[in-house]
Amino acid sequence: MKCPTCEKQIGLDWLEDECIEPNLDFDCPHCDEVLRYEIDEGTYLGAQHITIEVVDD
Ligand SMILES: [Zn+2]
């Protein structure tokens, strides 16, 4: 998955290493944009689908 702002890769491994929970704000490690991610576990293939969005306050 990619940061929506700088389009650099953000790995799930990195999120787990940093103990970043879904739906909580975090800073992109590349561009410091404030981001949030969601996990949708309801896909028919059984794979997790992760969405990253920019937090726009
Ligand atoms: Zn970024």
Detail the topology: elements first, then pairings.
Layout: H1 12-17, E1 26-27, E2 34-40, E3 49-54
Antiparallel strand pairs: 1-2, 2-3
The structure holds zinc ion.
Give the tags.
single chain; 57 residues; alpha+beta; three-stranded antiparallel β-sheet; 1 helix; globular; binds zinc ion; CPXCG motif-containing cysteine-rich protein
Structure write-up:
The protein has 57 residues and is α+β, with helices and mostly antiparallel strands. It has one domain. 11% of the residues lie in helices and 26% in strands. The protein is built from 1 helix and 3 strands, in the order H-E-E-E. The protein has one helix spanning 12-17, and strands at residues 26-27, 34-40, 49-54. It has a 3-stranded antiparallel sheet, with no helix packed on it. A hairpin with an 8-residue loop joins strand 2 and strand 3 (49-54). The longest helix is centred in the N-terminal third of the chain and has 6 residues, at 12-17. The chain is globular and about 35 Å long. The mean pLDDT is 90. The chain binds zinc ion. The site of zinc ion has 8 residues, from loops. This is CPXCG motif-containing cysteine-rich protein.
- Unreliable runs: none
Q: pLDDT average, as an integer?
A: 90
Supply the number of structural domains: 1
Strand content: 25-35%
- The span between the termini is 22 Å
Structural class, by secondary structure, is alpha+beta
Helix count? 1
The percent of residues in helical segments reads: 10-25%
What can be said about the biggest beta sheet? 3 strands, antiparallel
Q: How many E-type strands?
A: 3
Sheet with most strands: strand arrangement = 1-2-3
Q: Compounds present?
A: zinc ion
Strand and helix order: HEEE
Shape: globular
Radius of gyration from CA coordinates = 11 Å
